[in-house]
Amino acid sequence: MKKLTAILIAALAASATIQAKDKETVTITPISQDADAANGGIIYSLPKTMLRIKVEAEVTIRKAGPYYRYSNKFLNLNDVITEDSKTWSIKNVSIEAFGTPDANRTYKISGTTLPAIQLTNRGIIESINATHTAHKGKSSNNTTTNNNSDITEPTFDNVRLGRNVLTKTSTAAMAEEAALSIYRLRDKRISLLGGEDATILHDEGSYDKVFSEIDKLEAEYISLFAGKEEKTIVTKYFDIEPGATSLTNTVLFRFSETDGFLDAMDITGKPVYIDIDYSQKSNVNAYQADSKQRKQNPINGFRYIIPGTINVKIIDRNILLTEANIQCSQNGQEATLPATTLTNNTIRLNPNNGAITEINAIKVDNSKK
Question: Kind and range of the H or E element at 216?
Fold first, then answer.
């Protein structure tokens, strides 16, 4: 009797253990409807790879001074700006990838005991059972740092004109008095440097301050004759979603040496093209991401992506500005790890393309047993 009781107790214990393990089984199911997310579990998305094209252009603004006609007469200046102009040129182009959640690759992880999961702020999975994330996805919030219309043009409003200039009644008289002010500043500098009528300052630091102010005033007055030139960097971002087919000679934007960045449809500018070559697809025989196929033939496992490679070129008419090979999820295939892998491994993924970048077994400290 005691022996039978012991056998029954052992059988019940084994049954309880099996049931507990069954309850602790992690399941991963695709989210086909919004209602699926209401039944508990953790929702994660695999990324759709996006391209961010960063273009830096330099605009040189030249502004003629109000007295440029009198530059040679009063100051013997010849190399001066005689008309206002803007000149644009492309200085640098770069290509980066970032991930955005793919609605067709969204899943729910369920179970009584779930692994530690880290997501981006947009719900793209980054790691499982990891203490920190090795990869940082690019933000998709940045669009434009400067617009053509946001450029501040140089002015002469900050030139500190004296009363002797402002009280003149003609431009020629004002120009002559401004030139005399320049000569007075130069005489003052000579006086500070030495001579019979030298001005004596008490400490060396005072000389530096006075000379600096004289130089600044002289530069301001000379700009009224010679004009001003300023250079500004304007940065524009273009976000592109690679599709299912290659792109050839697709206009990304248009660019003008006088007006800068223009819309792709504005034919007054010269075209800058984007070419995307999808020929380097991932050829691994993996589980496809087709939502209909997944629904008909669901597989319980952790989904990740084996990305393919796309070649991206940015071309200014016939001049190659930059080129990059990008690992792209749309050009790859979806693959599956057994769900049991999540319980005893640390896994890190690239949030830009969904690829597993690291997987390590969790070490068990047997000394505590």
Answer: helix 204-226
Classify residue 111 as left (phi > 0), alpha (psi -120 to 50) or beta.
left
184-220, pLDDT tens digit by residue?
998 888 877 765 555 555 666 677 788 888 899 999 9
DSSP 235-272: EEEEEE---SS-EEEEEEEEEETTTEEE-TT-TTSEEE
Any idea of the CA torsion for 68, 74, 78, 80, to the nearest 10 degrees?
Answer: -30
Q: Which two tokens stand for residue 43?
A: 């929702």
Smallest CA-to-CA distance from 309 within 242, 252, 248, 250 is with 242
pTM of structure: 0.76
Query: What pLDDT is attached to residue 304?
Result: 93
Q: What is the DSSP letter of 124?
A: B
* Pure H helices in 1-77: 2-23, 71-75
Q: Residue 292's pLDDT is what?
A: 56
pLDDT at position 279? 75
Q: Give strand pairing partners of 235.
A: 56
Which of 93, 101, 94, 98 has its CA nearest to residue 51? 98
